[in-house]
Each structure stands twice: as C-alpha cells, then as structure tokens.
Amino acid sequence: MGATPKWVTDYYKDFRLKERTKCFKTCLKCGETKLISKFSVDKRNLDGRISVCKACRSLEYLKYYYHNRDKILIQIREYHKNNKRDRSIYFKNYREKHGEQLKENASKWYLENKETIKERNLKYYQEHKEACQTRREVWIEKNRERIRKYNREYKRKHKDM
Ligand SMILES: [Zn+2]
Q1: Rounded to two decimals, what is the model's pTM?
Q2: C-alpha gyration radius of the chain
Q3: Has residue 105 been placed in a domain?
C-alpha cells in the first residue's frame, strides 16, 4: 500500500476546516438546521459540537425523566443525603467568618450588574425552557409534602377573612 494520495488528505483537511468554521448545523433528531450555538460543545466530535440540538436533548431528558421518575428521585434524595451535611457545615463556617464582607460584595455586585443579570436570566430561561420546566417539576416532586402543608395553612388562614 502506498501513501495516501494528496487530493485525499487535502479533501479531508478542507472538510475539517469547513466543519470547524461553519455557523449552522443540522440536528440528527429533529432534522432542523440551527445556529451552532444551539448545540452543546463536544470535543470528541469533528465539528466540536454534539449531533443533537439542545432543545432535543432537553426533550430527551424530559422523556427520560418521565420514564425513570422514581429512579431519578431516589438518586436526588441519596445525593442530598450524602452531600447536605458536609456542604452546610462548610458554608456555615465560611459565612460566620466572612458574613459581612460577603453580603457587602454581593449587594455591590448586584447593583452594578442589575440590568445584565436580568437580561441574562431572561435569555437563559428562554434558551433552557424545557430544562427549567423539568427542574421545576423535580422541585415540586421533591417538596410535595411542604407545598401541600403550605396550601393547607394558607387556606386555613384565609378562610376567615
Ligand atoms: Zn433537534
């Protein structure tokens, strides 16, 4: 076997360059052509992005969540059980040491970046709508008891008014 012909290596070089510099990509799942930023980064892929768009990935997760709800909730519960104590102790110590400084820094930072933060949050929400909804559902599932109790309290309090 001889060396690879030059036109083949050139062809691939050109192909790789095009792949790397292109701004659009077609999703393998929904078939839509979208901006490259709508695809998550994946260094292993030729063009540096995964083949399925973010929206489809969120949907996939949503489907996965519906079919594995119990498993996921157990995982979340386990995770919290294992991480809660260590983390809260660490933060408590840290807050005690740096409390005032932290508060000051945070409010200063917030005031200086108010508009940017608002914009970013809105943009994030619009881009991750499905994921946000899923997260909300997980939260509701996790706090079901608390929400029920809160609603009961609320009704009780407002009945007399
Ligand atoms: Zn898609």
Answers
A1: 0.37
A2: 24
A3: no
How many Å lie between the centroid of ligand 1 and the Cα of residue 29? 5
Number of structural domains the chain divides into: 2
Between the CA of 75 and the centroid of ligand 1 the distance, in Å, is 28
- Rounded to the nearest angstrom, the distance between the alpha carbon of 37 and the centre of ligand 1 is 12
pLDDT digits (tens, 9 = 90+) for 96-120: 888 888 788 888 888 888 888 888 8
- Token pair 């005031």 is found at 111
pLDDT in tens, 67-77: 888 888 888 88
Whether residue 69 is contained in a domain is answered as no
Provide the domain limits for residue 45: 6-54
Alpha helices per DSSP H over the chain: 6-21, 54-67, 69-127, 129-142, 144-159
Residue at 41 is within a domain: yes
The rounded Å distance from CA 129 to ligand 1 centre is: 14
The answer as to whether 141 is a domain residue is yes
Domain boundary among 38, 54, 70: 54
